[in-house]
Specification:
alpha+beta; flat; four-stranded antiparallel β-sheet
Length: 1512
C-alpha cells in the first residue's frame, strides 16, 4: 500500500510512562496514537511519515524499540486490550504477541542488554518478563502496589527498576525470582518516570564529562564494575527529581522543579494536579538530566553545577519554542553527528530538539479528533484549513518554505467539534467555521483576535458553509450598503441561514421564507442537508434529506429544476470549475449521498432555457459506480477537465474520469472512514483527505497501485461493528485506579479530545438512517480493564442446576374445570398475611402475663383516679399501647410512634395511612409528595381535603410519574385537571406520539395548530426511522398530501412509487404524480415489465408521449431479442403486451399501427403535441460504460421523435432524431445495435429519405450526410467482420488468395462489436505479424477473379465498399484534423502551465535543507526533459498555433461542424485493411492519410503502410 507523502497524524496518547521511543540506528521515531503506533522517519529539517503499526483494538499504553545491537527493526507495544505485541518495523507486521496480563498494562520496556526480553507491569503490581524468541515468560509480584513505570538496566541484564503510584521505587533481580534488592523511599506521590545513568559509579556523575567518554558506551564487564554501583533518576508528581545511589540506597541529588516567571510566583492547584514529570538521561551527557516541568517547559539539569540553580531552559533563545502544556515522554537519538531529543505533550505537538544548541529543530502537529472538514483558501494559495473534533481549528501552510508542517492552531471561542469550513472568496485570511453545537463564526487567521460569532445558532450540527451572493433581504440597497458576499450555513435541523458578515450580531435569515414567496410553495419544504453555489454565483444547489437536489437561480431563488436521482440523504454537492477548456463542463454538478453511487448531472439546458415551471431531472449525465458505502465528500480537480475525487465510508478515496465514467486511482492509506477531501490547487496530482482515524493525508494520485475501490468489501464501519460484537458487554466500571485516577483532565489519555461517541456523525449529513452505529472514541473510563473478562478467577461462578430443577416442558393439556380447584384443597395458593398497621401496640399486647396485668392496673388507675389525671404514656414508650384506651392525645402519641416505626422500617404507605386515619390528610399528601411516594389510593382520597389540595396532589403525582418514566399515566392525571395541552406536550416530548394524537384528536378542536404540529413531528420521527407509510399517514392527517406523497416514494421501489403517484394524483399534485409515475415505470422497465409500466403511465394523461416511448422500446426489444437474443443471463422474463400486429410489415408500420390502435394517436395535432412534449427531454450522451438497458431506452426516445416526425412529414426533424439514435449507439461502442436500428428504420438505405428533404436547407443536408455516413460506417465494419463467412467461396481461388483470406479471417476473429480505435486496429494486425498490405498495387497478392463464384462474391463486396465512399470526405477530414490540432495545443498549454507552477514552487524552496529530495518530486521526468530539449516550444509559438488553428476551423462552414461524423482516418485504415478490392478507395484513403495524419496515433499507424521509420 502506498504511504502518504505527508500526513498530520493522530495525537500521541496522554498519561503514559513510555509511549514513544527511537530506534537504535537513529532512523525512526515512534509514538502511540490511539490504537496504533505512528512511525516517523527522522530528519533534521522535517520528519517524513513512515507508516503505522496497526493491530491493537484499544488504547496503546506502552511502546519501546529494541536497543540491542543489530535488532533495530524490532519494537514492542502494550495496550489496554491486554496484549503485548512484538513488531517488525520494516515490514510493519506483528512477529509475535502474548496476553499473559489479567489487568491493565501500565508500563513496558525492552531490555537493552537482552535482545528478546520485554518487561511489562500492570496496575495490580504484576511484572511479566517475556522472551519472545523462545516464547518463554516469568511472572513476579514484588509489591502489592500499582505500577506506574519501569525500566530495565543499561548495565545489568537482570535488574529492573519499578516506580509505583505511592512513590516507592524498587529494583528487582529477575534472576532471583523477582527478589527486591533495593527499596528506595523518598517520594510521596506517583512515580512518573525512571532513567538509569548511562555510566557506572556514583562519582562519575559529579566529575567532568570529558573524563567519562570512555565509559559511556561500556557495560558491566567484571565484578569490579559492579562494585562501582549504579545511579537511577526518578521523576515524581511531588515536583521533585531524585538521583539515587542504588549501591547505598540513598539520595545523591534532590532537584526541585522551579516555578518559572511566566507562570507567576506560585502554582495553582489545578496546574499542580496536571503535572507530569518525565526524566531522560542522555547517553552522551551522563552529567546532565533532561526533564519536563509544570507548563510544558523542558529543563536541562547539570549535576556538576554548584548552587541552587542547576537547570537551563530549552528553547530560551526565542519565544514559542516550548510546549504550551505538560510533556509526557522524552527520548533521544544520534542522527548525522547530532543528538536529537523528542518530546510529546498534551498540546498535541511532537517536537525535535538539538541538544547541542537546546533549540527546537522542528515541530510536527497532530490531531485529537475526527477530521470533519478540509478547505483550501482561494486567496492564500496553499493554505489548508482543517476542522477537527478536538475543538481546535488548524491552518496548514502547505507551501511553507520554513517547514513541511507550518500549522497555526486556533481554539478561542470554539469549544466544540469543528464540522464545517469555508474561506471567503476574496478576503485574505477570512475563514468561516461551523460546529456540532450549531455555532457559526468567522476567524481572521492573520490576527490573534477571537472569532466573530453569529448571534443566530443552529439547533443541531452545522453540515456545510458556503459564501455566495446576497439574496433578499440582504440584497436590497446600494453596493456600498450591503456585503458583496454573505455566508450561508446548513445544519442538522434542515434549515439554511444567511448571515451578514458585516453584522454577525444581527439576526440571520432563513432562506426557506424567500423560497416559499418566490415559488409560491405551500407544501412543507424538505429538510436541507447540503448547499453549494456555482462558482460564478448565479445558481444555488441545495441537497435535501429525501435525496432530491433543488437548483435555484439567484438572487430571488427561483426554482429551476429538481434532480430526483438519489433516494437517500445528500452528503456532498460540488460544481465543476469554470476555467476548463470546455465551457459546457461548468454546468456539471456532482453529488453523493448515503448510497454508494455518485451521480453527475448537466443542467446546461435548464439554465439556458430558464423554464417557466420547474422541471424534474431523472437521468444523470454520468454515473460513477465502485464505492461500497456512503459518499462523504467530493472535490473536482482544478487542473483537469472532468476529473473528480471522492471519499467514502469504505475507507478509500477514488479519482474518477467523469467523462469516461472510469475509475483511475484508489488510495487506501487511511485506517478508518474517510470524511472529507480537497484537491491541491498547486499540484495536479496531489490530494488531501481526512478521516475518522484522526489523520490528514497528502497523497499522489498517479502513484497508487489500485485503480478502483475494493470490491466485495463493505464499509469500515461494518467491520468495526462485527469486531465489536465479539467483545463481551462491559460491566459497570469502577472508578479508575492507579495513575489514571490522578489525571485531572476529563479528556483522558487517549489523545484527550474526543467524546465517547462522535455525535456529529450520528446526526448530520454524513450519517444515514439505516441504523449505522458510529465508531466510539475512548474516554478515560475505557482505560480500565474489564477484570472480570480478563481474569477467569474473578468472573461470576457458574451455578450448576440439577436436572430435577429444570422446568417441565409445556404440553397441551385439557382444560380443568373450576370446581376441581377448591379453596380448601392443598393445590390452592396460600395467601400472604397482610402487614399489621399497628405492630408496636399489637406486640405490646402480646407480652408476658405479668406485664399485661401491670398495664391493666395502670390503665385502671388512670381512668379512676380523677385527681391525678396523669398521662399513662408520658413516662415510657413501653406504655404507648395504652393510648388506645385513654384519651385522644394519648392515641395521637401512639399513632405517631407507630408512624415513625413504619418510616424507619421502610413502609411509608402505612405511615400515610395512619395520618389519614388521624385526619391529617393534607399533611399525609405533602409528606408523600416530598418523598416521591404518592400512590393512586392517596390521590383517590385527596378530594376529601378540598379541590385545591386535590389539584395540587394530582400535579405532584404527575411529576412523580414523570420521574418514574410513567408518562402515559402522568398524562391521564393531567387530563383529570383539564390540562390537555400539557398532557399532549408531555407525551410528544417523550415520543408517545400515538397516545398524544389520540388525546389531541379527542379533546381539541380539529383546526387547532397543536394537532398539525403533532402530526408533523411524528412524521419526521417516523421518516427518520424508515417507517415511510406511517409517516405518509401523519402528513395526510396534517393536511400535507405533497409531503405524504414524497415520503411514501422515499423507499424507491415500484410499490412505493406507484402508491405515491396515486396519492399525489388524488391530492391534485399532478406534476408530482407524473414524476413518481415515470420513476415507477422506469423501475418496472428495469425488470422488463412493460405491461406494468404502461399500466402506471396510463393513469397520467400528460404522459402519453412517454407511453409511446415505452411502446416503441418494447417492440424494439422484442425484435432485437428475436433476431439476436439479448440478456440471456438475465433472471427476469420479459413481460410483453399481446398486441395484435400485422405480419410481414416493416418495423415503422408495426409501431404506427400499435400507436393508432392501442393509444389512439392518429391526428397531426396529437403527433405535434406529443413531439413538443418529448423534445424538451434531453438525455446525456452515451459512453462505453453506459448500461445497455439505459442505452436502449435513450435510443427508443430518439426513435420515437424520429417516428413522430416521420408521420407528420417533418423530414428534417426525423433525420436529426434518427441521427441522434445512431450516434448514441456508436458512442456507446455498440455497432451491432446501430446496424439493427438502421435495418429497421432505413431498410432500403438513405436514398428514399433524401428525396423528401429540401436540398436548399444546408443544415438539413448536413444532418442527412452525417446520418448517411454513420449508416455507411456500420456497413463498412459489417463488411469487414463478415469476411470469414465468405472464406469458403474464396477457397477456390489461388493459394495467394487463400493467404489473403486467412488474414481477413484472423482479423475478423480478433474484432468485436465494439468500435476499434485506429491504434487498436493496427495493434491487432501487428500481433499477428502481418506485413504491410500495400507493397505493390495488390499488396503482394494476385487475386484471380476468373472463378465464377469468386467473382460474384468480390463484386458484392466491391459494391458495398463503393457505398462507403461517403466516409472518405476530405472536408470532414480537414475539420477533424484541425480540431485535433486545437486539442493538442490546448493540452500542451495546460502541461506548460503546470510545469511553470512547479518551477515557481521549486524556486521558492531552494533554501530548504532537503530541497534535493523535493526537487526530484517536482521536476519533470528525465524523458520529458529530453523531449522538451529535442522539441523546444515557447508560449508565443503555442498561442500562434492555437490562433491559426481556431481561424482555420472558423473558415469551415457551420453545417459541417454542427453534426458528428465518423473518424475519416479511422475509416481509411479499415478500407486499407480490407485489401485492394476498390482501387479508387484505396488511393483516396492513402491520400487522406498522407495529408491529415497529424495525431501521434495516426502517425504510428501510417508507418505500417508508408514504410516510414519513427525518425522520419
Amino acid at each position: 500500500m502506498m504511504a502518504a507523502e505527508r500526513a498530520l497524524p493522530a495525537s500521541p496518547n496522554w498519561y503514559c510512562s513510555r509511549c514513544s521511543d527511537t530506534s537504535e540506528d537513529g532512523h525512526l521515531f515512534g509514538f502511540a496514537a490511539r490504537h496504533n503506533i505512528c512511525l516517523l522517519e527522522v530528519r533534521p529539517a522535517a520528519p517524513a511519515f513512515h507508516g503505522e503499526l496497526v493491530g491493537h483494538t484499544e488504547r496503546v499504553s506502552g511502546f519501546s524499540f529494541c536497543h540491542y545491537p543489530g535488532q533495530n527493526n524490532y519494537c514492542a507495544s502494550s495496550s489496554d486490550d491486554g496484549a503485548v505485541k512484538i513488531w517488525d518495523s520494516q515490514r510493519r507486521a506483528v512477529v509475535t504477541e502474548h496476553t499473559l496480563h489479567q489487568n491493565t498494562i501500565s508500563a513496558l520496556h525492552w531490555s537493552p542488554k537482552v535482545k528478546d526480553l520485554v518487561v511489562t507491569g500492570d496496575e495490580k503490581g504484576i511484572v511479566i518478563c517475556y522472551w519472545h524468541n523462545r516464547n518463554d515468560s516469568q511472572q513476579f509480584f514484588p509489591e502489592p502496589r500499582t505500577i506506574f513505570c519501569l525500566t530495565c538496566s543499561l548495565h545489568h541484564e537482570n535488574l529492573v527498576a519499578i516506580g509505583y503510584k505511592d512513590g516507592i521505587v524498587v529494583i528487582i533481580d529477575i534472576s532471583r525470582k523477582g527478589e527486591v534488592i533495593h527499596r528506595l523511599r523518598g517520594h510521596d506521590d506517583e512515580i512518573h518516570s525512571l532513567a538509569w545513568c548511562p555510566v557506572l559509579g556514583e562519582e562519575s556523575i559529579c566529575s567532568r564529562q570529558e573524563e567519562l567518554q570512555d565509559t559511556t558506551t561500556r557495560g558491566v564487564t567484571d565484578e569490579a564494575d559492579l562494585m562501582k554501583g549504579y545511579c537511577l533518576a526518578s521523576g515524581s508528581k511531588d515536583q521533585t527529581i531524585r538521583v539515587w545511589s542504588c549501591a547505598r540506597n540513598r539520595v545523591l541529588f534532590t532537584l526541585k522543579l522551579p516555578f518559572l516567571k511566566r507562570r507567576g510566583g506560585g502554582v495553582e492547584p489545578a496546574v499542580k494536579e496536571r503535572l507530569w514529570l518525565a526524566v531522560h538521561w542522555p547517553q552522551s551527557h551522563p552529567t546532565q538530566i533532561l526533564s519536563s516541568s509544570f507548563g510544558g517547559e523542558l529543563l536541562q539539569w547539570d549535576l556538576t553545577q554548584s548552587g541552587k540553580r542547576k537547570w537551563e531552559l530549552l528553547g530560551a533563545s526565542s519565544e514559542g519554542q516550548n510546549h504550551s502544556r505538560i510533556v509526557f515522554n522524552l527520548c533521544s537519538l544520534r542522527a548525522e553527528s547530532r543528538e536529537l531529543l523528542f518530546s510529546i505533550s498534551m498540546d498535541r505537538d511532537v517536537k525535535c530538539w538539538d541538544l547541542a544548541s537546546l533549540n527546537c529543530c522542528w515541530t510536527m502537529p497532530s490531531l485529537g479528533g475526527f477530521v470533519y472538514s478540509l478547505a483550501f483558501s482561494p486567496v492564500d494559495t496553499g493554505c489548508l484549513a482543517v476542522g477537527v473534533g478536538d475543538s481546535m481549528l488548524r491552518v496548514w501552510n502547505t507551501l511553507s518554505i520554513n517547514s513541511h508542517y507550518d500549522v497555526k492552531t486556533f481554539w478561542q471561542g470554539i469549544k466544540s467539534k469543528i464540522t464545517a469550513l469555508s474561506w471567503h472568496p476574496t478576503k485574505e485570511g477570512c475563514l468561516s467555521f461551523g460546529t456540532d453545537d450549531g455555532k457559526v463564526g468567522i476567524y481572521d487567521t492573520h490576527s490573534s483576535k477571537p472569532p466573530q460569532i453569529s448571534s443566530t445558532y443552529h439547533k443541531k450540527t452545522v453540515y456545510t458553509l458556503a459564501w455566495g451572493p446576497p439574496v433578499p433581504p440582504l440584497s436590497f440597497g446600494a453596493d456600498g450598503d450591503r456585503p458583496s458576499v454573505t455566508l450561508y450555513s446548513c445544519a442538522g435541523e434542515g434549515v439554511v441561514f444567511q448571515h451578514n458578515p458585516w453584522k454577525l450580531n444581527g439576526e440571520a435569515h432563513d432562506i426557506n421564507k424567500l423560497i416559499r414567496e418566490t415559488n409560491s410553495i405551500k407544501y412543507k419544504l424538505p429538510a436541507h442537508t447540503e448547499i453549494s453555489w456555482k462558482p460564478d454565483g448565479s445558481i444555488l444547489a441545495i441537497g435535501n434529506e429525501d435525496g432530491s437536489i433543488e437548483i435555484f437561480q439567484a438572487p430571488d431563488l427561483k426554482l429551476l429544476c429538481t434532480i430526483q436521482q438519489h433516494h437517500k440523504l445528500i452528503n456532498a454537492i460540488r460544481w465543476h470549475h469554470d476555467h476548463g477548456t470546455q465551457p459546457e463542463l461548468s454546468y456539471l454538478i456532482a453529488s453523493g449521498s448515503n448510497n454508494a453511487v455518485i451521480y453527475v448531472h448537466s443542467i446546461k439546458s435548464v439554465i439556458e432555457n430558464s423554464p417557466e415551471k420547474p422541471v424534474t431531472i431523472t437521468e444523470p449525465f454520468r454515473t460513477l459506480v465502485g464505492h461500497t458505502a456512503k459518499i462523504t465528500g467530493l472535490s473536482w480537480s482544478p487542473h483537469h477537465d472532468g476529473r473528480l475525487a471522492s471519499v467514502c465510508y469504505d475507507g478509500t478515496a477514488q479519482v474518477w474520469d467523469v467523462l469516461k465514467e472510469e475509475p483511475l486511482h484508489n488510495y487506501r492509506g487511511h485506517r478508518g472512514r474517510l470524511l472529507c477531501v480537497q484537491w491541491s490547487p498547486v499540484d495536479e496530482n496531489c490530494i488531501y483527505t481526512g478521516a475518522d482515524d484522526f489523520g490528514v493525508h497528502k497523497w499522489v494520485a498517479t502513484k497508487q497501485e489500485h485503480s478502483r475501490p475494493p470490491q466485495g468489501k463493505k464499509s469500515i464501519e461494518l467491520d468495526k461493528k462485527r469486531s465489536s460484537q465479539l467483545k463481551p458487554k462491559a460491566k459497570k466500571k469502577k472508578k479508575p485506579s492507579g495513575k489514571w485516577s490522578s489525571s485531572p483532565d476529563v479528556n483522558g489519555s487517549l489523545n484527550g479530545g474526543e467524546s465517547v461517541r462522535e455525535s456529529f456523525l450520528e446526526e448530520n449529513g454524513i450519517s444515514d438512517q439505516e441504523g449505522e452505529k458510529e465508531q466510539q472514541e475512548s474516554e478515560p473510563a475505557e482505560m480500565v480493564s474489564m477484570e472480570g473478562h480478563k481474569n477467569p478467577s474473578l468472573s461470576l461462578p457458574v451455578v450448576c442446576v440439577p436436572d430435577t430443577a429444570k422446568p417441565p416442558m409445556m404440553l397441551k393439556t385439557p382444560l380443568v374445570r373450576k370446581d376441581q380447584m377448591k379453596p380448601g384443597s392443598e393445590s390452592s395458593v396460600k395467601r400472604k398475611k397482610p402487614r399489621s398497621i399497628l405492630p408496636l401496640s399489637t406486640s405490646m399486647d402480646h407480652r408476658a402475663k405479668e406485664e399485661l396485668h401491670q398495664d391493666c392496673l395502670r390503665l385502671a388507675k388512670y381512668l379512676h383516679s380523677k385527681d391525678l389525671q396523669e398521662d399513662v404514656t408520658s413516662h415510657s414508650v413501653d406504655h404507648v399501647n395504652l393510648g388506645l384506651f385513654t384519651d385522644r392525645p394519648a392515641l395521637y402519641k401512639m399513632m405517631d410512634t407507630e408512624g415513625k416505626s413504619h418510616l424507619e422500617n421502610g413502609h411509608p404507605e402505612l405511615f400515610q395511612q395512619l395520618m389519614v386515619w388521624k385526619g391529617d390528610l393534607k399533611g399525609a399528601l405533602q409528606s408523600a409528595a416530598e418523598r416521591g411516594e404518592l400512590t393512586d389510593q392517596l390521590v383517590a382520597i385527596s378530594p376529601m381535603a378540598g379541590y385545591q389540595t386535590w389539584a395540587w396532589t394530582v400535579e405532584a403525582f404527575a411529576k412523580q410519574l414523570c420521574f418514574q418514566e410513567q408518562y402515559v399515566k402522568a398524562a391521564s392525571h393531567l387530563l383529570s385537571l383539564h390540562k390537555v395541552y400539557e398532557a399532549v406536550e408531555l407525551l410528544k416530548s417523550h415520543s408517545f406520539f400515538r397516545e398524544a394524537t389520540v388525546i389531541a384528536k379527542a379533546r381539541l378542536r380539529p383546526e387547532d395548530p397543536v394537532l398539525k404540529d403533532l402530526y408533523t413531528s411524528w412524521a419526521a420521527v417516523l421518516e427518520k426511522d424508515g417507517h415511510y407509510s406511517m409517516a405518509a399517514k401523519c402528513y395526510l392527517g396534517a393536511d400535507s398530501p405533497y409531503d405524504a406523497a414524497k415520503v411514501l416514494a422515499k423507499k424507491g421501489d415500484t410499490t412505493s412509487l406507484k402508491g405515491a403517484a396515486e396519492l399525489a394524483l388524488i391530492a391534485g399534485e399532478k406534476d408530482l404524480s407524473m414524476t413518481f409515475s415515470f420513476r415507477c415505470a422506469q423501475e418496472l422497465l428495469s425488470s422488463k415489465n412493460w405491461v406494468g409500466a404502461q399500466a402506471v403511465l396510463q393513469q397520467q394523461e400528460s404522459l402519453l408521449g412517454h407511453r409511446l416511448v415505452f411502446c416503441l422500446h418494447e417492440l424494439l426489444h422484442k425484435c432485437l431479442n428475436e433476431s439476436n437474443p439479448v440478456d440471456s443471463r438475465s433472471p427476469s422474463t420479459p413481460c410483453y403486451h399481446s398486441w395484435v400486429v400485422k405480419q410481414d410489415c416493416s418495423f415503422i408500420e408495426m409501431v404506427s399501427s400499435v400507436w393508432q390502435s392501442m393509444f389512439g394517436v392518429s391526428t397531426a395535432e396529437q403527433l405535434q403535441n406529443i413531439y413538443e412534449q418529448l423534445r424538451t427531454i434531453e438525455y446525456p450522451p452515451s459512453t462505453s460504460n453506459t448500461h445497455p438497458r439505459q442505452l436502449l431506452f435513450h435510443i427508443s426516445h430518439d426513435l420515437t421523435l424520429a417516428l413522430l416526425s416521420y408521420q407528420s412529414a417533418s423530414w428534417e426533424e426525423a433525420v436529426k432524431a434518427l441521427l441522434g439514435a445512431v450516434t448514441r449507439s456508436c458512442d456507446a461502442g455498440d455497432l451491432t445495435l446501430m446496424q439493427e436500428i438502421c435495418n429497421h428504420f432505413l431498410p432500403k438505405g438513405c436514398d428514399d429519405l433524401r428525396g423528401k428533404l429540401d436540398n436548399t436547407n444546408l443544415q438539413c443536408m448536413a444532418a442527412y450526410r452525417s446520418l448517411e455516413a454513420f449508416v455507411a460506417y456500420g456497413q463498412l465494419y459489417d463488411t469487414w467482420w463478415n469476411l470469414r463467412e465468405d472464406s469458403r467461396v474464396l477457397e477456390q481461388l489461388e493459394p495467394a488468395s487463400e493467404a489473403w483470406c486467412h488474414e481477413q479471417s484472423t482479423l475478423e476473429q480478433s474484432s468485436t462489436a465494439r468500435v476499434s480505435s485506429p491504434k487498436e486496429i493496427v495493434m491487432e494486425a501487428e500481433d499477428m505479424n502481418e506485413e504491410p498490405f500495400f507493397k505493390g498495387h495488390n499488396n503482394g497478392i494476385s487475386l484471380e477473379t476468373d472463378s465464377v463464384a469468386g467473382s460474384g462474391l468480390l463484386a458484392g463486396r466491391r459494391g458495398k465498399l463503393r457505398g462507403c465512399s461517403v466516409l472518405l470526405s476530405e472536408d470532414h477530414a480537414a475539420v477533424q484534423s484541425t480540431q485535433k490540432d486545437i486539442s493538442r495545443v490546448q493540452q500542451t498549454l495546460k502541461e506548460m502551465i503546470c510545469q511553470h507552477q512547479k518551477n515557481n514552487l521549486q524556486q521558492s524552496i531552494t533554501n530548504r535543507q532537503d530541497s534535493e529530495a523535493d526537487l526530484e518530486k517536482l521536476l519533470a521526468p528525465a524523458s520529458q526533459i529530453k523531449e522538451q530539449k529535442n522539441e523546444p516550444v515557447s508560449l508565443p509559438d503555442l498561442m500562434k498555433q492555437l490562433t491559426e488553428a481556431n481561424q482555420k476551423l472558423a473558415e469551415f462552414p457551420d453545417s459541417i461542424k454542427a453534426f458528428p461524423f465518423p473518424d475519416v482516418l479511422e475509416c481509411c485504415l479499415v478500407v486499407l485493411h480490407m485489401g485492394n478490392l476498390v482501387p479508387e478507395l484505396q488511393e483516396k484513403s492513402l491520400h487522406l492519410l498522407r495529408k491529415y495524419r497529424g495525431s501521434s496515433i495516426h502517425k504510428e499507424v501510417c508507418r505500417k503502410y508508408f514504410h516510414e521509420s519513427p525518425a522520419s
